[in-house]
Amino acid sequence: MTNSYDAIIIGAGIIGCATSLALGRKGWKVLNLDTLPAAGYGSTSGSCAIIRPYYSTLDGSAMAYESHFYWKNWADYLGGEDIDERGLIEYHNVGALVMKTGANDYLRPAMALMDQLESPYSEFSPEQICAKLPVWNTESFYPVKRPDDPEFGVANAKSLTGAVLFHAAGYISDPQLATHNIMRAAERSGGEFRYNARVVEIKCANGRVGGVKLENGDTVEAPVVLNAAGPHSSKVNQMAGVEKSMRIKTRALRQEVAHVPLPAGYRRDTACVTSDSDIGLYTRPEQGDALLIGSEDPPCDPHEWVDPDDYNRDFSEQWKVQVLRVCQRVPSLGVPNQMRGVVDLYDVTDDWIPIYDRSDLSGFYLAIGTSGNQFKNAPIAGELMANIIETTQNGNDQDDSPIDFHLKNIDHTFSSGFYSRLREVNQDSSFSVLG
Ligand SMILES: Cc1cc2nc3c(=O)[nH]c(=O)nc-3n(C[C@H](O)[C@H](O)[C@H](O)COP(=O)(O)OP(=O)(O)OC[C@H]3O[C@@H](n4cnc5c(N)ncnc54)[C@H](O)[C@@H]3O)c2cc1C
C-alpha cells in the first residue's frame, strides 16, 4: 500500500469527500482517512440535508444559491449517472416556506439578498400558507418559550402576517448516500479512502507539515494535510498546534432532531421545508411518512457544548420540547410515545460561519466550523478548498491576498477571505444554524 500522497484529508464526511474530488480533478493524489467504517458516517449522516438559498450575508447566500444547481445537476457534478452502484441521491426541490416574523425582520433583508442574486421567491399571505399546508395554524406564539413557561402555547393577539417561499430549496433524503456518491466520484479521479483509521498525530518537519500518524502506528506522508474532521476539528487543530493562532475557533454542539408520524391532513404533494422563527423550529417531510423537526436554537434553549468523544447520544427532554413547539403550529400532531430521530453534533464557529482557509502551519489547511449549515455547500466548499490549497502551495499568501472564487451558475464572485480563520467575528451573522 502506498504511504506517500500529494494530500491527506482527515475525514471522509461530505466536506472531506468533496475536497478529495476537487483535488483529484486537478490531478492530485489524495488519501482520505476516517476513524469510522465508511464515508459520510460522521455528523453528515445525521444531517437534515436541507438546501436553501437564504443566509444572513450576501456571500453566504450566494454560495448557498449556487449549491442548488449542483444538487439539481447532481450527475453532471459527479461525472456520470453510473458513478455509484448504490444509485444517486434525489434532490426534492420542493421549496422552503419561511414564516415572516419580527425575529427575521419580516424577511425584508433575506428578500433583498435574493433580489441581488436573482434567486426566485414568492410572498405568501396567511391564507396561502394554509392552502399549501392545510394542517398549519397561523397564530403567533412569539417569543419562543419552553413548555414549563406558563405562557407556552398561548397565542398572541396578532397572527403571522405571511411567509416567503424560496424556490431554490428542498432537501436530500439520504445525506450519507450523497457523500458515498461523491466518494465514488473521487475514487474515479484517483482518490483513495482508508477507514477505521484514526489520526492521532500531525507529523511536522522543518516548520511544515509532513504527514500523519495513525492510531495503529502507521505513518502516511504528504506535504499537504487538510483538517475536515467535522466536530473533531478543534481536537485535530490542537494536534497540529494551530488552534491558538486562529481568531475564530470551533467547538462541538449537541443537537436533537425529532422524527414524528405525519399528522392527519398533512399533504405530501404540497409539503415543503418550513422555517419558523415564531416557534424556533424547521421541519420537512422525512422518509417513512414522518415529519422531521429541527431546532433553530432560540435564545431560551441552552447550548450544550460537548466533547465529541464523550456526549449523551440518547434523546433528552429537548426532543419533547421541539415536538410540543410544533404542536402549537400543527394542533393535530400528537406527541408519540416512542422517541425517534437523530442526536448528533454541529461543529460551530464563533460566528456560525465556516472556516475554509490555510493555517499558521505550512501545508496544514482547514475546512471546518460548518456550524450545522454547510451540507448544502459541500460541493462548492470542496472546489474552494482545492483552489485555496493549490494556489497557496504555489506560493500565494492566502492571508494577504485571499483568492477570489467564481460561482459559475449564478455568475457571482466572492473573496475567500470571508471564510478566513483570522477574520473578525462577522456581526452580520444570525449567530445560529441559519448562518
Ligand atoms: C443534526 C444536524 C442537522 C443538520 N442539518 C443541515 C441542513 O439541513 N442543511 C445543511 O446544509 N447542513 C446541515 N447540517 C450540517 C452539515 O450536515 C454539516 O455541515 C456537514 O455534514 C459537515 O460535514 P463534515 O465532512 O465537515 O463533517 P463529518 O461528516 O462529521 O465528517 C468528519 C469526519 O472526520 C472523521 N474524523 C474526525 N476526527 C478524526 C481523526 N482524528 N482521524 C480520522 N478521522 C477523523 C469523523 O469520523 C467524520 O467521519 C446538519 C448537521 C447536523 C448534525
Structure description:
This protein is α+β, with helices and mostly antiparallel strands and 435 residues long. 23% of the residues lie in helices and 24% in strands. Strands 5, 6, 7, 14, 15, 16, 17, 18 and 19 form a nine-stranded mixed β-sheet that branches. Strands 9-2-1-13-21-20 form a six-stranded mixed β-sheet, sandwiched between helices. Strands 3-8-4 form a three-stranded antiparallel β-sheet. Strand 20 (355-358) and strand 21 form a beta hairpin. The longest helix is centred in the last third of the chain and has 16 residues, at 378-393. It is globular and about 70 Å long. It starts with 6 loop residues before the first strand and ends in a 20-residue tail after the last strand. The mean pLDDT is 97. Bound molecules: flavin-adenine dinucleotide.
Number of domains: 2
Reported for the largest beta sheet, the result is:
9 strands, mixed
Report how far the terminal alpha carbons are from each other. Answer: 41 Å
Question: Which secondary-structure class do the elements indicate?
Answer: alpha+beta
Second CATH tier, the architecture of the largest domain: 3-Layer(bba) Sandwich
CATH topology of the largest domain: FAD/NAD(P)-binding domain
Would you identify the regions where 5 or more consecutive residues have pLDDT less than 50?
A: none
| Overall CATH class of the largest domain | Alpha Beta
The CATH superfamily name of the largest domain is FAD/NAD(P)-binding domain
Ligand catalogue: flavin-adenine dinucleotide
Radius of gyration: 21 Å
Q: What share of the residues lie within helices? A: 10-25%
Structure summary, number of beta strands: 23
